């Protein structure tokens, strides 16, 4: 179907749609009254819950940090604390950027540009969060072992064996995650390139 | 209240516009309902700031298209909040099955285009001039003309 053919078919379809007046006043009013932002911000709610969990973990570690009596447990504690601070901050920041897009004032080009930029940033943060989360898992396990159970996992358990066995699984999962995110990031970046060409 | 009455009338008069934007940007009933509601919500939200500086339909297209980009992929939607009568989003009534297939094919072909081309081709099919397309999208009239000729080539390539 060529563009001219499409146009005549579109006109035919449009005239049929015009004749179908189906939406009711009450339905329109319902849609305007709906507290819709609540749904749109669902992602933000998850992020805030995640941030609170991180904060609780951070507080717990800060209060009990003196119990980490070896240098390697202290390093693990500091690494965990750093990730627990940075992870939610970057994630919420990226989401805020996406939700700040001004739909009523922007034109299509501006919206598309802002959205694509926000998407690239958000995907990068998500990808980084995945790797940071994996590091957190490794560093937090001995810290919590010490703080909750009072054991130094490096001495009393086969923690190195657990790390070694789980590494290949994590590696392949990480490659898969990386490929997926890279593809989405590339799509958004291509859109930005194309927008720069037409600007 | 007067404002709401006026808004309802505007939506009823231009529901075909919203319908077509929704059809071009979505592929699936749940998504359609979701976007339909979101567009009406966004139109209502910015209705007070609409100052008649641009044509009513220019404003409506702008909000509808912007909403389609921003809200569609923001998250995986799980159904709509207001239950929309199936009829509102159904294909136009036609007893001609071949026509129905052609309409479906038409939407499918437009959906294959990227976000820039999709908006330009939609507005072109709606009979908008290059100047009007430029006012809605923010692309220059020269760019609109260039993109349209490229889109023609893309569509031919899609068929092959």
Automatic annotation (TrEMBL), chain A:
Entry keyword set: Membrane, Transmembrane, Transmembrane helix
Entry keyword Membrane: yes
Transmembrane spans: 43-65, 71-90, 128-148, 160-177
Protein name, per record: DUF3278 domain-containing protein
Automatic annotation (TrEMBL), chain B:
UniProt keywords, alphabetically: Sigma factor, Transcription, Transcription regulation
A family per Pfam: Sigma70_r2
Family statement drawn from the similarity comment of this UniProt entry: Belongs to the sigma-70 factor family. ECF subfamily.
NCBIfam families: sigma70-ECF
Entries under InterPro entries matching the protein: RNA_pol_sigma-70-like, RNA_pol_sigma-70_dom, RNA_pol_sigma70_r2, RNA_pol_sigma70_r4_t2, RNA_pol_sigma_r2, RNA_pol_sigma_r3/r4-like, WH-like_DNA-bd_sf
Residue intervals of the RNA polymerase sigma factor 70 region 4 type domain: 105-155
Protein name in UniProt: Sigma-70 family RNA polymerase sigma factor
Every RNA polymerase sigma-70 region domain range: 11-77
SUPFAM superfamilies, A to Z: Sigma2 domain of RNA polymerase sigma factors, Sigma3 and sigma4 domains of RNA polymerase sigma factors
């Amino acid at each position: 179907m060529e563009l001219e053919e499409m146009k005549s078919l579109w006109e035919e379809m449009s005239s049929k749609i015009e004749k179908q007046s189906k939406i009711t006043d009450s339905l329109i009013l319902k849609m305007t009254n709906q507290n819709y932002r609540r749904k749109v911000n669902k992602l933000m709610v998850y992020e805030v819950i995640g941030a609170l969990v991180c904060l609780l973990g951070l507080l717990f570690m800060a209060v009990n940090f003196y119990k980490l009596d070896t240098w390697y447990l202290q390093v693990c504690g500091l690494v965990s604390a750093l990730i627990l601070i940075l992870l939610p901050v970057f994630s919420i920041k990226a989401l805020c950027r996406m939700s700040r897009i001004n739909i009523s004032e922007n034109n299509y080009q501006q919206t598309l540009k802002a959205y694509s930029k926000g998407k690239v940033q958000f995907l990068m943060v998500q990808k980084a969060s995945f790797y940071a989360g994996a590091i957190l898992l490794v560093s937090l396990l001995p810290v919590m072992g010490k703080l909750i159970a009072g054991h130094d996992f490096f001495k009393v358990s086969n923690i190195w064996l657990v790390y070694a066995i789980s590494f290949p699984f994590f590696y392949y999962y990480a490659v898969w995650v990386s490929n997926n995110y890279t593809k989405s990031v590339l799509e958004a970046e291509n859109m930005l390139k194309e927008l720069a060409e037409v600007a | 209240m007067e404002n709401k009455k006026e808004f309802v009338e505007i939506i009823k008069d231009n529901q075909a516009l919203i319908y077509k934007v929704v059809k071009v940007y979505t592929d699936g009933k749940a998504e359609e309902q979701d976007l339909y509601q979101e567009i009406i919500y966004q139109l209502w939200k910015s209705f007070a700031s609409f100052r008649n500086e641009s044509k009513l339909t220019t404003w409506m297209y702008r909000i509808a298209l912007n909403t389609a980009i921003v809200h569609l992929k923001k998250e995986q939607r799980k159904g709509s909040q207001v239950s929309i009568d199936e009829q509102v989003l159904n294909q136009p009534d036609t007893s001609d099955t071949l026509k129905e297939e052609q309409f479906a094919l038409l939407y499918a072909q437009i959906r294959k285009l990227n976000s820039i081309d999709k908006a330009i081709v939609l507005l072109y099919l709606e009979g908008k001039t290059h100047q009007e397309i430029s006012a809605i999208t923010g692309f220059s009239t020269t760019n609109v003309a260039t993109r349209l000729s490229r889109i023609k080539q893309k569509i031919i390539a899609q068929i092959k």
